[in-house]
């Protein structure tokens, strides 16, 4: 771990073939926009043969809005890696969903052990939620979210289940939930939102990126990844160079290979400019 220095940072990369970045709190500023400087660097990156992969807890419908606004194409890993999405073709290329039985077991277990929980479910196409959960997803793309009872959530496969507790913080809830669930069936993560996200055990950003890179024949040592929250830890740990923005969670700052400037200071663009100047000196002067 340490602040960004080009010489030591480059020692982690034998080449640069792929850049993977989280969105909220990392590439996006606090106002959920991308600066003109970052936009320019991303366009320069996409003019090279380096692949750019957006990897986020966001579902496709909100991630693709950002991609369209800032003219970002290629592939994206949505819902913490549960959905591989083609931004150019605007379609899903594959997904990993919880079965209805897994959803039922999960909700039953947590509701029994922890009163005052509310739930929401992401199907990949839409989000449904209990009324108590609505304030935490009211910003979603219209016509979603739909308010339903818990029985409706239990009836179909779901990409992820989200849960909020009325009095526990997200970190407190994480510590309470983790011992209750079989980690062979479920993965539990959280980011900047006030709720936990629970998916299949094989769903996390590191595994998703590793699978995609294997298909693209890109080794980990040719990948740089950026993140800010605990759900980004598997991503940063897998990549040849894992970079935290300065505003990242303490666990992420501790685990990262390098630390760049904060998201509001264009930290991703700052480091990418240096990396691309080294690997592609004719593209960035």
UniProtKB/TrEMBL annotation:
Q: Domain of life here? A: Bacteria
What InterPro entries has UniProt attached to this entry?
A: Cof (IPR000150), HAD-like_sf (IPR036412), HAD-SF_hydro_IIB (IPR006379), HAD_sf (IPR023214)
A Gene Ontology molecular-function term?
magnesium ion binding
SUPFAM superfamilies in alphabetical order: HAD-like
Q: Sorted alphabetically, which keywords does the UniProt record give?
A: Hydrolase
One GO CC term of this entry? cytosol
Q: Which Pfam families match?
A: Hydrolase_3
Which NCBIfam families does the entry link to?
Answer: Cof-subfamily (TIGR00099), HAD-SF-IIB (TIGR01484)
Q: Which PANTHER family match?
A: HAD SUPERFAMILY HYDROLASE-LIKE, TYPE 3, PHOSPHOSERINE PHOSPHATASE
What is the protein name given in its UniProt record?
Cof-like hydrolase
Source organism of this protein record: Ktedonobacter racemifer DSM 44963
């Amino acid at each position: 771990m340490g602040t960004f220095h080009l010489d030591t940072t480059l020692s982690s990369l034998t080449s640069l073939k792929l850049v993977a970045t989280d969105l909220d709190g990392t590439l996006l500023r606090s106002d959920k926009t991308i600066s003109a400087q970052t936009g320019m660097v991303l366009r320069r990156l996409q003019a090279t043969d380096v692949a750019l992969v957006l990897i986020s807890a966001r579902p496709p419908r909100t991630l693709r809005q950002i991609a369209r606004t800032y003219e970002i194409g290629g592939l994206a890993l949505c819902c913490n890696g549960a959905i591989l999405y083609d931004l150019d073709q605007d379609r899903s290329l594959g997904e990993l969903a919880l079965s209805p039985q897994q959803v039922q077991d999960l909700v039953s277990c947590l509701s029994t052990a922890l009163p005052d929980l509310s739930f929401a479910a992401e199907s990949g196409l839409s989000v449904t939620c209990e009324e108590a959960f609505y304030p935490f997803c009211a910003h979603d793309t219209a016509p979603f979210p739909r308010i339903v009872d818990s029985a409706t959530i239990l009836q179909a496969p779901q990409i992820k289940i989200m849960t909020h507790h009325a009095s526990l913080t997200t970190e407190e809830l994480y510590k309470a939930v983790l011992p209750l669930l079989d980690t062979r069936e479920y993965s539990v993560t959280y980011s900047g939102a006030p709720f936990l996200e629970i998916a299949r055990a094989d769903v996390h950003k590191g595994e998703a990126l590793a699978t995609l890179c294997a298909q693209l024949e890109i080794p980990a040592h040719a990948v740089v990844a950026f993140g800010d929250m605990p759900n980004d830890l598997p991503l940063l740990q897998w990549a040849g160079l894992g970079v935290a923005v300065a505003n990242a969670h303490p666990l992420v700052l501790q685990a990262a290979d390098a630390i760049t400037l904060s998201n509001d200071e264009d930290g991703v663009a700052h480091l990418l400019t240096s990396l691309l100047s080294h690997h592609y000196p004719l593209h960035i002067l």
